Amino acid sequence: MLNELQQTESAYRSASQQAEQLREKRNQLVRQALAAGMTHAQISEATGLSRGRIGQIAQTQLQEMKR
Protein backbone atom coordinates (compact mmCIF):
# COMPACT_ATOMS: atom_id res chain seq x y z
CA MET A 1 0.00 0.00 0.00
CA LEU A 2 2.78 2.48 0.85
CA ASN A 3 4.51 1.63 -2.41
CA GLU A 4 1.35 2.45 -4.35
CA LEU A 5 0.99 5.69 -2.41
CA GLN A 6 4.58 6.67 -3.24
CA GLN A 7 4.10 5.85 -6.91
CA THR A 8 0.89 7.81 -7.04
CA GLU A 9 2.47 10.83 -5.36
CA SER A 10 5.39 10.70 -7.77
CA ALA A 11 3.05 10.53 -10.77
CA TYR A 12 1.02 13.42 -9.36
CA ARG A 13 4.11 15.61 -8.91
CA SER A 14 5.26 14.83 -12.43
CA ALA A 15 1.84 15.66 -13.88
CA SER A 16 1.73 18.91 -11.88
CA GLN A 17 5.11 19.98 -13.23
CA GLN A 18 4.05 19.16 -16.77
CA ALA A 19 0.78 21.06 -16.32
CA GLU A 20 2.69 24.13 -15.12
CA GLN A 21 5.03 23.98 -18.11
CA LEU A 22 2.09 23.68 -20.50
CA ARG A 23 0.29 26.57 -18.80
CA GLU A 24 3.34 28.78 -19.27
CA LYS A 25 3.63 27.74 -22.92
CA ARG A 26 -0.07 28.44 -23.48
CA ASN A 27 0.25 31.87 -21.89
CA GLN A 28 3.26 32.67 -24.04
CA LEU A 29 1.33 31.66 -27.16
CA VAL A 30 -1.66 33.75 -26.08
CA ARG A 31 0.64 36.77 -25.73
CA GLN A 32 2.17 36.08 -29.14
CA ALA A 33 -1.28 35.80 -30.70
CA LEU A 34 -2.27 39.15 -29.18
CA ALA A 35 0.96 40.73 -30.43
CA ALA A 36 0.20 39.36 -33.89
CA GLY A 37 -3.15 41.16 -33.86
CA MET A 38 -5.55 38.41 -32.94
CA THR A 39 -8.54 39.51 -30.90
CA HIS A 40 -9.51 38.26 -27.48
CA ALA A 41 -12.59 36.71 -29.09
CA GLN A 42 -10.50 34.75 -31.61
CA ILE A 43 -8.15 33.47 -28.93
CA SER A 44 -11.07 32.65 -26.67
CA GLU A 45 -12.69 30.57 -29.38
CA ALA A 46 -9.43 28.73 -30.09
CA THR A 47 -8.58 28.00 -26.46
CA GLY A 48 -11.83 27.91 -24.54
CA LEU A 49 -10.49 30.59 -22.20
CA SER A 50 -12.73 33.52 -21.34
CA ARG A 51 -11.91 36.89 -22.84
CA GLY A 52 -11.35 38.14 -19.31
CA ARG A 53 -8.75 35.45 -18.65
CA ILE A 54 -6.96 36.35 -21.88
CA GLY A 55 -6.84 39.94 -20.67
CA GLN A 56 -5.35 38.76 -17.38
CA ILE A 57 -2.67 36.81 -19.21
CA ALA A 58 -1.83 39.89 -21.27
CA GLN A 59 -1.71 42.08 -18.14
CA THR A 60 0.63 39.63 -16.40
CA GLN A 61 3.20 40.19 -19.11
CA LEU A 62 2.92 43.95 -18.75
CA GLN A 63 3.34 43.74 -15.00
CA GLU A 64 6.41 41.52 -15.37
CA MET A 65 7.94 43.96 -17.84
CA LYS A 66 7.54 46.83 -15.33
CA ARG A 67 9.55 44.94 -12.66
Search tags:
67 residues; mainly alpha; 0% strand; 87% helix; 3 helices; single chain
Cα distance spanning the termini: 48 Å
The shape is: elongated
Overall radius of gyration = 17 Å
Measured by DSSP, the beta-strand proportion falls in under 5%
Descriptive account of the structure:
This protein has 67 residues and is mainly alpha-helical. The chain has one domain (2-66). It is 87% helix and 0% strand. It contains three helices and no strands. α1 (2-35) crosses α3 (51-66) and α2 (40-47) crosses α3. The longest helix has 34 residues, at 2-35.
Set out the fold topology.
Elements: H1 2-35, H2 40-47, H3 51-66
Helix pairs in contact: 1-3, 2-3
What's a concise summary of this model?
The chain has helices at residues 2-35, 40-47, 51-66. The chain has 67 residues and is mainly alpha-helical.
